[in-house]
TrEMBL record:
Gene Ontology MF term list: ATP binding
Pfam families for the chain: ABC_tran
Database matches in PANTHER family: ABC TRANSPORTER ATP-BINDING PROTEIN, DOXORUBICIN RESISTANCE ATP-BINDING PROTEIN DRRA
Keyword tags: Antibiotic resistance, ATP-binding, Nucleotide-binding, Transport
Species name: Streptomyces zhihengii
Name the record gives this protein: ATP-binding cassette domain-containing protein
Residues annotated as domain ABC transporter: 13-243
InterPro entries listed in its UniProt record: AAA+_ATPase, ABC_transporter-like_ATP-bd, ABC_transporter-like_CS, ABC_transporter_ATP-binding, P-loop_NTPase
Gene3D superfamilies named among the record's database cross-references: P-loop containing nucleotide triphosphate hydrolases
Amino acid sequence: MSTTIDAPAPAAVTATGVRKSYGEKVVLDGVDLRIPAGSVFALLGPNGAGKTTAVKILSTLVGADAGEIRVGGHDLAADPQAVRAVIGVTGQFSAVDGLITGEENMLLMADLHHLPKAEGRRVVAELLERFDLTAAAGRPASTYSGGMKRRLDIAMTLVGGPRIIFLDEPTTGLDPRSRHTMWKIIRELVTGGVTVFLTTQYLEEADELADRIAVLNDGRIAAQGTAEELKRLVPGGHVRLRFADPDAYRAAAAALGEATRDDEALALQIPSDGTQRELRSILDWLDSTGVEADELTVHTPDLDDVFFALTATTDSTPTEENAR
Ligand SMILES: Nc1ncnc2c1ncn2[C@@H]1O[C@H](COP(=O)(O)OP(=O)(O)OP(=O)(O)O)[C@@H](O)[C@H]1O
């Protein structure tokens, strides 16, 4: 084993101890990330958590104050040009020029990547087709819908054949159909071997797409893992019993002393992991105590629960945070 040369890591992106401040404001306070090649990684966080800043740093647009970053096997600080050659970025700010046609936007990208004319035309035609933009290719991009512009933006990013793509909030503002189209596009990219780093405020989107998710809060990664791993971090699974009759509710609440009461909704919550075995034992228990609910629902923790649990301290304890 060599002690001087790093073994080629099977990671598309690694970041260690990344810090960034704007003046007094600490935006990233020691961020560590590792993203395996060919996977989808979602960075989740509330507004202002530092997601866009992280994308800008990892894509060489903004310098970090400290930390080590490798993207596509290249040291970002030592060789930003090499990093730029293997990545594509689409942000909340679109690169699309509305005054020229979709095809012209694409050909411009081909020129920027110094593709020979014929090769550029071939790649552009192929991408327009793939992103269902061939029919609209001759129209000024300003006439495109939000979803079409977003597709054009990604198609433009792909002209250079990037191996790693950063998508900053790729579906914000899109209607459900366009959002699903975007998800399909992202899945296809990954099938083609591309690594996708996306930021999102939609927990559903991270759950749907990402192999791994990191929750950014107060400039730090509050938790990182698969959606299932993150869901296991928080309690919150329960069976909820709702009653129409206040007397039945009160009787049940008395019989089920350990249940959490919601007097307004006439509902009781019993902690449960949602497994068949536990449900059966709860139902047996209800039968034996003579409780008959009008409605029974099973609630398993979702990413919302995780998100709220991990980002809950943001507003509540600023003085304590500052004091440390
Ligand atoms: N160029 C800058 N100068 C000063 N402060 C900045 C700059 N860029 C970002 N910030 C601050 O850094 C913090 C994080 O911003 P960032 O845009 O990275 O957050 P975000 O998680 O992407 O938020 P959102 O979900 O709202 O897009 C914010 O408080 C923002 O005001």
